Amino acid sequence: MRLTRRKFVQSVLGAGAAAGLPGILFSACSKSSKATTAAAATARKFYGGSSGDHATFPKGFFWGTATAAYQIEGAWNEDGKGESIWDRFAHTPGKIKNGDTGDVACDSYHRWREDLALMRAMNLNSYRFSISWPRIQPSGTGAPNSKGLDYYSRVVDGLLEAHIRPLVTIYHWDLPQLLDEAGGWTNRDTVGRYADYVQLVAQSLGDRVSDWILFNEPAAFVDLGYMEGTHAPGRKSLLDFLRATHVVNLAQGEGFRALKAARPTARVGTAFSMSPCEPAGDSDDDKLAAERAHAITNTWFLEPALRGRYPEALTFLPETAMGVKSGDMEKTRAPLDFIGINLYYRTIASAPSAMERAAHAQDWLFPVKMEGGHEGPKTDLGWEVWPKALYDMVMRITRDYNRPAIEITESGCAYNDGPDASGAIRDSRRVAYHREYLLALARSIAEGADVRGYHAWTLMDNFEWAEGFSQRFGLAYTDFKTQQRTIKDSGRWYARVAAENRVVSP
Fold first, then answer.
1. pLDDT value at position 42?
2. Which of 83, 217, 278, 384 is catalytic?
3. Of 299, 69, 302, 297, the residue nearest 172 (C-alpha)
């Protein structure tokens, strides 16, 4: 998943320039390099990096992990499940690294009790997982598949018996293939299909599930699926990208209303991919570029929900190309009960040079150049570890949206440590990542942010979208040949954190 999925903040802009999106330029992240001593010291000073530092979290704080159906379930064509766009995409040669597919993944469809045992061993009190739309409605419409509903009902019951909150993501990228063939997220009819699906699952599971996530990272799946073409359904069209953006915003509003109609007391949010956008320098141009980057990266799908408008910095986008009709923006409104933040790294924004602008004449309209930070240490996927990014993003959302309830719905790191001679997985870098990000999060809470939970990505190593099985983010190690799960050192450390409701020493 992560290299492309997590990089919407950068990839959408690069694709925009390549595809003709007005005014956007992108510079790729620099390759992995060690942090300078000064940069590391600065980061430690910010988040309290000494091993003796601790931070206690509010009573009732949710400690969890996050997963997605296609990444863990397998059973891709069992018990009446229909084909999804990811089934079709992964079965297309050349789309996924090493030719991997999610046909089996972690086999969680059959081994969910083993997954539950991992959660209990980690002392978790929240589990974010997603429902596969084609497992419920094989064609994306019509009566539900009872076997699919029964599966999720068993999972929910098992979680509740273990005193673990089910935090259910309704859509995590696996659109029914037949809906894609009718236009997918570029087709306004998909709004109604999605609302029907939302109502169906809410009616079926809402007697036991109180917390819901409408979409996972709409910015990412719209860009990567419709303009970049690196994720399902693999399209490369600027027009499709613009149309899908608006259709998904409409679906977010209609889905919110459908869920509330079925379960009025439900708590409903969306998990947004976010990254704080810092100006590269002190110039006014760079500061303006950072604000424009913030708009396209963090609020493109949040502003329509909470304020019924697209961010002011993006008013250059042609409404006719996006398919905006009279009355649409009121329909995009969804007064979310909480804002989910998926965050991994920061972004550096600057105004492109005159030469860069001259190379793309249309980029005079919206000049932004973006790259990942490269002062901090890097993960095995080349992402900068910068704990302050979580603090900055949480505080920005807290300030701009009148202190909303926030859940950290994802944060994590790819480190590909395997078992040593004794069978232990000593992933100390992952422990350091989560510890440092949690200390930064604790600071934001101390300064007034209303953060209710933290969900580590991910419970166990799984199918990471276009990266296949090549990258490991899990707190538990998955042997994909035997499907044996082994809790890593990071998972054991996280269990202590959850049990004590505070950041503890490694």
1. 42
2. 217
3. 69
pLDDT digits (tens, 9 = 90+) for 478-506: 999 999 999 999 999 999 999 999 999 99
Conformational region of residue 113, where left means phi above 0, alpha means psi within -120 to 50, and beta covers everything else: alpha
Q: Can you read off the two tokens belonging to residue 138? A: 């094989």
Amino acid at 420: D
- What does the DSSP assignment read for 21-76? -TT----PPPPP-PPPHHHHHHHHHHHT-STT--EEPPTT-EEEEE--HHHH---T
Q: How many CB atoms lie within 10 A of CB 402?
A: 7
356 is catalytic: no
Which 3-state string (H, E, C) describes 300-318?
CCCHHHHHCCCCHHHCCCC
149-195: per-residue pLDDT in tens?
Answer: 999 999 999 999 999 999 999 999 999 999 999 999 999 999 999 99
| Residue 308 scores a pLDDT above 90 | yes
**The residue to which tokens 């949710």 are assigned:** 62
Q: What are residue 432's DSSP bridge partners?
A: none
The answer for residues whose C-beta is within 8 angstroms of residue 406's C-beta and 6 or more apart is: 338, 339, 340, 341, 394, 397, 398, 449, 450, 451, 452
Number of H helices, E strands in the chain: 20, 15
Q: With 90 as the cut, is the pLDDT of residue 35 above it?
A: no
Phi, psi dihedral angles at 370 (to 5 degrees): -130, 145
Q: How many residues does the chain have?
A: 506
Domains in the chain, please, with CATH? 2-503 (3.20.20.80)
Measured from the Cβ of residue 92, the count of other Cβ atoms closer than 10 Å reads: 12
Q: Is 375 a catalytic residue?
A: no
Check pLDDT > 70 for residue 346. yes
> With contact defined as beta carbons under 8 Å apart, do 271 and 409 qualify?
yes
- Tell me, what amino acid is at 351? A
Q: pTM score, two decimals?
A: 0.91
Q: Which of 73, 303, 384, 410 is catalytic?
A: 410
